[in-house]
Amino acid sequence: MTEAAIAPAAAPAPLLSVGNLTKAFPIRGGLMKRQIGSVRAVDGVNFDIEPSETFGLVGESGCGKSTTGRCVLRLIEPSSGELRFEGKDVIALSGEGLRALRRDIQIIFQDPYASLNPRMTIGAIIGEALTIHGLAASRQQYEARIVHLLETVGLQADHMTRYPHEFSGGQRQRIGIARAIAVEPKLIICDEPVSALDVSIQAQVINLLEDLQQKFGIAYLFVAHDLSVVEHISRRVAVMYLGRIVETASSRQLYSSPKHPYTEALLSAVPIPDPSVKRKRVRLKGEVPSPINPPTGCHFHTRCPIAKDVCSKEVPPLKASAEGHLVACHFR
Ligand code: SF4
Known about the structure:
This protein is of the alpha/beta class. The chain has helices at residues 3-6, 65-72, 95-104, 122-132, 139-152, 169-181, 199-216, 227-233, 251-256, 261-268; strands spanning 16-29, 34-49, 54-58, 80-85, 88-89, 105-108, 187-191, 219-224, 236-241, 244-250, 319-322, 325-327. The strands form 2 sheets. An 8-stranded mixed sheet has the order 6-7-8-3-9-10-12-11, with helices on both faces. A 4-stranded antiparallel sheet has the order 2-1-4-5. Strand 11 (319-322) and strand 12 (325-327) form a beta hairpin. The longest helix has 18 residues, at 199-216. Mean pLDDT is 91; it is low at 1-8. Residues 260-261, 298, 300-301, 304, 306-307, 311, 316, 329-331 line the site of iron/sulfur cluster. This is Oligopeptide transport protein. GO terms for molecular function: ATP binding; ATP hydrolysis activity. It is found in: Cell inner membrane.
């Protein structure tokens, strides 16, 4: 056997690599609107996403998960840190490079209605991206492509002449998905894509996203505030609290054996379909503190049921508790 044959297989290069990403928004005040402080919405976030993988990013409203997603696409400019997509430095991109990135990375929004121009037909909404990126050589090809995209997401060819207000919430999200996949992206940022939908429709949209991943090998960064939504679709999940990742693990590890007290509390609120399985409900004290003036040390110490003195003084590093399972807690 040759040396090459026994060498371990190289780990696949990540599609997206996020390193120590930070985003601070200025706070302005006074008559002159001078900067009087800043909010660190994203505070040193690290993760990788592999090709065709779904990575879930979960946390309560205001934890920085959507800001992280928007920084990846440069819809919001990061304050510092590193973003690499297929090895390219995303922060250094401009002009044509940035346009190419926005073909490779697409986004689906929480409110599909707000993100669809009410004055444009569905055909024009989906076709816009084909035109911008020069993906249809003729009118005939353009229309055939739109019909194919509509059918791929479970809509019909004759929907292309209608307007967004003629569709239900679930159908509008399908239109948003058709628009996103029109340019054959490698990664889609799904920013709370099912939060505004009824539970039965949520499952249909998630199934559609899974089918599209199987067919086209698309990776997803799936942002959600609800752990139950990301459980089935994600291979790995990160939990965020006040701008920081507090736990990352495979979906199976996180749901069967959460380590961080915040993850435990979030999971304890997720209903279990089997009534014979009991889960102890962990009720957190108070509300999420203001990100303008977050608690010192571990941001979670003001609500943590097991906090000790050290927690308000020292930031717990994100360290391995098992293979592929990272947790930021002094006591776990
Ligand atoms: Fe709770 Fe302290 Fe762990 Fe933070 S570091 S999660 S406050 S025990």
